[in-house]
Specification:
The chain has 6 helices and 10 strands, in the order βββαββαβαβαβαββα. It has helices spanning 49-57, 81-86, 102-114, 150-167, 180-183, 203-212; strands at 10-20, 23-34, 38-42, 62-71, 74-75, 89-92, 138-142, 170-174, 188-193, 196-201. Strand 6, helix 3 (102-114) and strand 7 (138-142) form a beta-alpha-beta unit. The chain starts with 9 loop residues before the first strand and ends in a 16-residue tail after the last helix. Bound molecules: adenosine-5'-triphosphate (ATP) and magnesium ion. Magnesium ion binds next to helix 1.
Length: 228
């Protein structure tokens, strides 16, 4: 299932184009995510981050028009969402949480039982639980941090980090909030602008973006403003 028991998985996105509402939003996305890695996608409003999450998960209304989405070489781009979930992909969407960390925990739990893995009642007990090969390997978190206070944010980040180290889950996290990255240690940070990844760096890039915003990354001629 994961680096934790010696099996390495690779999730590869190549030349992904996708449209939503009849217009192309993603203009060629390449990503390679391995077991246990944390990749973070940042970018200004409207740059296509959520559309990427939707395209990867096969959300109806978001159409992949070119490119591939592969898990261990198997192309998932034409499969319905449930089959992608069974292949080990799991999306934690943007939602306010009532109790810190619980919603993500519930989602992880549901993803694991749905894919035949052991059910989890507490992330802290997972390392002692025997999990089978079909457990979730890749999680895509689109702004799970929205609406959370700092303590809850830290708890979500801590749970995600635990998932990478204990289960070998690969995480592609979409966030506006570089504070999220204090507890969630990013291996790579990707900057998305206008449906393309325009820069990739380490965690220092996220801190730099906090200082500078995205102004330096826009296409020439773009008048779009940066994050509020
Ligand atoms: N269903 C749709 N119909 C029409 N346009 C859409 C649709 N979904 C997304 N778009 C457009 O695609 C672009 C990217 O939107 P998306 O929501 O993916 O950006 P985002 O990076 O997630 O933004 P935010 O930071 O505000 O969450 C925007 O210009 C948006 O208006
Ligand atoms: Mg979004």
């Amino acid at each position: 299932m994961s680096a934790a028991n010696g099996t390495e998985h690779v999730f590869e996105v190549r030349g992904l184009h996708a449209s939503a509402g009849g217009r192309e939003v993603l203009h060629g996305i390449d990503l390679t995510l391995r077991s246990g890695e944390v990749h973070v996608i940042m970018g200004p409003n409207g740059s296509g981050k959520s559309t990427l999450a939707h395209a990867l998960m096969g959300r109806p209304g978001t159409e992949v028009t070119a490119g591939s989405i592969r898990m261990d070489g198997r192309d998932l781009a034409t499969l319905p969402a449930w089959e992608r979930a069974r292949a080990g992909m799991f999306l934690a969407l943007q939602h306010p949480v009532e109790v810190p960390g619980v919603r993500l925990h519930d989602l992880l739990d549901a993803a694991m039982s749905g894919s035949g893995g052991a059910s989890m009642t507490d992330a802290a007990t997972v390392s002692a639980t025997s999990l089978d090969d079909r457990m979730v390997d890749e999680a895509k978190a689109d702004e799970v941090d929205s609406g959370l206070d700092v303590d809850a944010l830290g708890e979500v980040a801590r749970r995600l980090q635990l998932a990478t180290t204990e289960w070998g889950v690969g995480i592609l996290a979409i966030t506006h909030f570089s504070r999220f990255l204090v507890q969630l240690e990013a291996d790579l940070v990707h900057v998305m602008v206008d449906g393309r990844i325009v820069a990739t760096g380490d965690a220092a890039l996220a801190l730099q973006l906090e200082q500078t915003g995205y102004a330096g990354y826009h296409d020439e001629g773009s008048l779009r403003t940066t994050e509020p």
